[in-house]
Design brief:
The protein contains nine helices and 26 strands. With 426 residues, it is of the alpha+beta class. The chain has two domains: 122 residues, SH3 type barrels, CATH 2.30.30; 288 residues, Fumarylacetoacetate hydrolase, domain 2. The site of calcium ion has 6 residues, from loops. Calcium ion binds next to loops.
């Protein structure tokens, strides 16, 4: 596969700071709105969004037959993604060619004024209309921590865990874009030795995850093989699976997560294409025991994505509480998709699949406060002198992700959300 946009030697006529998430080699996709305008599809470079309709109006996509106005002047990327990888990858390569310093056909300054909009002047919206959402539980470090905290450290993993990627069907309607405030959820909790009570969640947590977005549908009855799974994955996004631990603890038996999860999940506004992540492939951990044939795979299916989580109190300085990496996943995306469809369950463009909490091997790399504070027994010291066992009102939780290699940094931007006080029903 030729991916000209990934060439580490490419340089753009757009100035890009060395620590920017959006060099010419990234070119992720999103949706932006400029004040007074309809939402439009965009890419990003440096501190600018690239207005894809403006690029089309300049004639750069004239050889593509799809309806540019309908696809690009759109509230969501679904129609764009649905064009298929042969087109969306070519659009990304074309953008790299347009933005490359090595050109002589157009006046860069004039073109820049036409197709670039400062990111500070636009609102970034939820990039896709999410059809179905599934959350997995695929980090062995996370599953082991949770099993140790709530069951038996000697037998932390349940018998099925190493045989299949455990997951549950989540809620798509409450998946929101970075920067959207979240009201602390209320619900039933069960104090020890007392009847259940209703009230604001006291143990509000984040879960550091990555999500992938489906770009190619299947028909009911079809299974996706691990070898073909990447054809169906358009790109990746940062994902915070907000979790109300006290609500979750009381309600989850016997059918799994419900109101402790479905009040909100925060995603980053940018979808980084799977192709942009190609240089960052990594071998996953050895799976023991050997998995069933339909879950076996060949090649490097994990990705080296640095991840961090920071907590920023109201009017306070942020503190990084977690440094993890997507490469730790025991079950990879191809296995997750193969398992999800092995029974004939169909998938659709715009579906979202989240990895499950991504914890690394030690405390500094755990992907939730439940693990970091070890169920509240090891509070985190904040720069303002306060402590955190879980998330307080006024706190903003910020997730960031980036890959780095050969002097190229491919970033995901941020998935941040601020917690507002609860408003209990009376
Ligand atoms: Ca989760």
């Amino acid at each position: 596969m030729s991916i000209s946009a990934n060439d580490p030697n490419l340089e753009s006529w757009v100035e890009v700071a060395p620590n920017s998430d959006f060099p010419i080699q990234n070119l992720p996709f999103g949706i932006f709105r400029k004040e007074g305008q309809a939402p439009r599809a965009c890419s990003a470079i440096g501190d600018y969004v690239i207005d894809l309709l403006a690029v089309a109006e300049h004639g750069f996509f004239d050889d593509f037959t799809f309806d540019k106005k309908a696809v690009f002047e759109n509230q969501y990327l679904n129609d764009f993604i649905g064009l298929g990888k042969p087109i969306t990858n070519e659009i990304r390569n074309r953008l790299a060619a347009i933005l490359d310093t090595d050109h002589d056909e157009w006046d860069a300054k004039e073109l820049g004024e036409f197709i670039l909009v400062p990111m500070s002047e636009v609102e970034l919206l939820l990039p896709i209309q999410i059809g179905d959402y599934t959350d997995f539980y695929s980090s062995i470090e996370h599953a082991t921590n949770i099993g140790s905290l709530f069951r038996d450290p000697e037998n932390a993993l349940l018998p099925n865990w190493r045989h299949l990627p455990v997951g549950y069907h989540g809620r798509a309607s409450s998946i929101i874009v970075s920067g959207t405030d979240i009201k602390r959820p209320c619900g039933q909790q069960k104090p020890a030795d007392a009847p259940p009570v209703y009230g604001p969640c006291k143990l509000l947590d984040f879960e550091l995850e990555m999500g992938f977005v489906i770009g190619k549908q299947t028909n009911l009855g079809d299974a996706v093989a691990t070898a073909n799974a990447e054809d169906h994955i358009f790109g990746l996004i940062l994902f915070n699976d907000w979790s109300a631990r006290d609500i979750q603890k009381w309600e989850y038996v016997p059918l799994g997560p419900f109101l402790g999860k479905n009040f909100a999940s925060t995603v980053s506004p940018w979808i980084v294409t799977l192709e942009a992540l190609e240089p960052f492939r990594q071998q996953g951990p050895v799976q023991d025991p050997e998995v069933l044939p339909y879950l076996q795979y060949e090649g490097k299916k994990n990705y080296d994505v640095n991840l961090e989580v920071a907590i920023k109190p109201e009017n306070g300085a942020e503190k990084v509480v977690c440094n993890s990496n997507f490469k730790y996943m025991y079950w990879n995306m191809c296995q997750q998709l193969a398992h999800h469809t092995v029974n004939g369950c169909n998938i659709k463009v715009g579906d979202m699949y989240a990895s499950g909490t991504i914890s690394g091997p030690e405390r500094g790399s755990y992907g939730s406060m439940l693990e970091i504070s070890w169920k509240g027994t090891k509070p985190v010291d904040m720069p303002d002198g306060t402590q955190r066992k879980f998330i307080h009102d006024g706190d903003t939780v910020i997730m960031r992700g980036w890959c780095e290699k050969d002097g190229v940094r491919i970033g995901f931007g941020e998935a941040n959300g601020k917690i507002l006080p609860a408003t209990p029903v009376t």
